[in-house]
Amino acid sequence: MKKVIFTEFGGPEVLQLVDAEDPHAGPGQVRIAVRAAGVNPVDWRIREGQVLGAHPTVLPSGVGLDAAGVVDEVGEGVVGVEVGDSVFGEGSSTYAEFAVLSAWAKMPEGLTFEEAAGYPSVVETALRLIREVGVRPGQTLLVSGASGGVGSAVLQIARERGIAVIGTAGAANQDYLRGLGALATTYGEGWVERVRRLGRVDAALDLAGSGVIAELVALTGDPGRVISIADLGAPEFGVHFSGVAGSVPDALAEAVDLISRGRLHIPVEKSYSLTDAAAAHADSHAGHTRGRRVIVVEPVQAMAEGRTTTPSSSE
To answer: Do 29 and 77 touch, CB atoms closer than 8 A?
Structure first.
């Protein structure tokens, strides 16, 4: 199969598309023929060699955590899913023609593989941040870097829970944020005063890592009311850096519910092929994303012809 890997830490240029052995589903896992893989900032942070305790890296390493596709191998002890089911979820080395998932859910009706691949880590992160920051219905949450995948999910989930939201993003994404129910303002000089004019801030999230932790603390008045997923220097200000995932199965179940009820939609801004993984990382690193970026994988011949592999009980 084809798979994107890196053999050394560095920039997008270290990514290689190689021929690799097929992975197999172990106990409690499923293998999918990948149709699309989500592109997350954590992917390029791992590729750069950033020290992320939740994701220790052994070289050579595959890339990617999120994917959507068709189950073609079911591991020992797995129930409720069969070969041929369309699922989305989280695993490892998902920039590939086949990947093993450790958490998954059946895709909601009407969702494409491309769309579904953008949800797993994003929704888990959004739910975790809202819980950890302790914001309650009737309060106001400020989201710095609100137009990307996690920001899009945070805004919609918070509004669903009765939490008011203020979002900062580039000028081109102001209408997008307003469409998600947020009060919107731009980055740049004077942004703190612009936020203050929009109202009281009870809690804040840093999703972009743009060096605004001190300002977020000033706006909330309490470093305990600020959380970052993008600035490794946040603890220097007394701010928690959230990098360890909660329950992905629970997050997927909530995502299915929200999507099915029309309460959550994250658009796909741009799609890439496996051969363009480096470009996908470069674009993700540049920021200013509206929604999600995904890698689209063409169906491998075996799946296209309706053949599936025999599940392995020994691997």
So the answer is: no
Q: What is the rounded distance in angstroms from the CA atom of residue 98 to the CA atom of residue 67?
A: 10
CATH tag, 2-118+267-296: 3.90.180.10
Domain range 123-241, CATH architecture: 3-Layer(aba) Sandwich (3.40)
Domain extents in the chain: 2-118+267-296, 123-241
Under the banding of pLDDT at 50, 70 and 90, the label for residue 301 is low
> Which of 74, 17, 24 shows the shortest CA–CA distance to 280?
17
**What are 44-82's pLDDT values in tens digits?**
999 999 866 566 789 999 999 999 999 999 999 999 999
Cα-based distances in Å from 47 to 7, 111, 158, 267, 291: 9, 30, 31, 25, 22
Looking at residues 174-186, what average pLDDT do you find?
A: 97
* Tens digit of each residue's pLDDT (9 = 90 or more) over 78-130: 999 999 999 999 999 999 999 999 999 999 999 999 999 999 999 999 999 99
What's the mean pLDDT in 149-165? 97
Tally Cβ neighbours within 10 Å of residue 59: 10
- Please compute, for residue 93, the number of CA atoms within 13 A of its CA located in the half-sphere on the CB side: 27
pTM: 0.91
